[in-house]
Design a protein that fits this description.
Elements lengths: L1 E4 L5 H16 L9 H11 L4 E7 L7 E8 L4 E8 L9 H15 L4 E4 L15 H6 L21 E6 L9 E7 L3
Parallel strand pairs: 4-5
Antiparallel strand pairs: 1-2, 2-3, 3-4, 5-7, 6-7
Helix pairs in contact: 1-2
């Protein structure tokens, strides 16, 4: 497997990347990712200046994974968005390799840290279906734990650094996980 920069004009790879996004997110985001047009729009955003867009390519020139990044805080912080590996290809190290490559890309651009915000649409964290405004307002000291964070980010050194209550409806929060990528 080789990891490459996806660029404008690479139409075959752009089509593959768009289909990969649709396939990877269909299970969790059926309302948002049902059509190839949504995937194409996302890939074209990923190809804009000041973004990172990398893809894994196998020996048959197929893309089993894609990762993107959004510049934040003047380049000191990068948001990892999106990361997609189709369900049938997960567990083979593709996502891990893409994340490690992404972290290197961020370091090479002078970035200090990476952040990602997995949405909790499927009740995958201990904060699911909790009214954080009510709970935190009583000074309960809520701490988020995860049942299953995408890309096994905890194993890769990411820590929970924040929570966005009701990001996706009442009780559907987004957690923010981050990792310092410089020594």
């Amino acid at each position: 497997m080789k990891i490459m920069t996806l660029t404008k004009g690479a139409d075959s790879f752009i089509q593959q990347a768009a289909q990969l996004l649709v396939d990877a997110f269909r299970q969790h985001w059926a309302d948002t990712w049902p059509l190839l047009e949504y995937g194409l729009a996302e890939v074209h955003e990923m190809l804009e200046a000041e973004r990172i867009c990398r893809a894994a390519m196998d020996d048959e020139k197929k893309l089993p994974g894609i990762i993107g990044g959004i510049l934040q805080y003047g380049g000191l912080m990068w948001e990892l968005h999106p990361l997609a590996v189709p369900p049938e290809m997960q567990g083979r190290g593709i996502g891990k390799n893409l994340v490690e490559d992404f972290e290197e890309q961020v370091r090479a651009r002078g970035g200090l840290a990476v952040t990602l915000g997995p949405d909790d649409q499927d009740n995958m964290t201990s904060l699911a279906n909790i009214d954080l405004y009510e709970t935190c307002g009583r000074g309960s000291g809520v701490f988020a734990t995860t049942k299953d964070i995408p890309i096994s980010s905890v194993k890769m050194g990411y820590v929970i650094t924040g929570v966005v209550p009701d990001a996706n409806l009442v009780g559907k929060s987004a957690s923010i996980t981050s990792k310092r990528v410089v020594m």
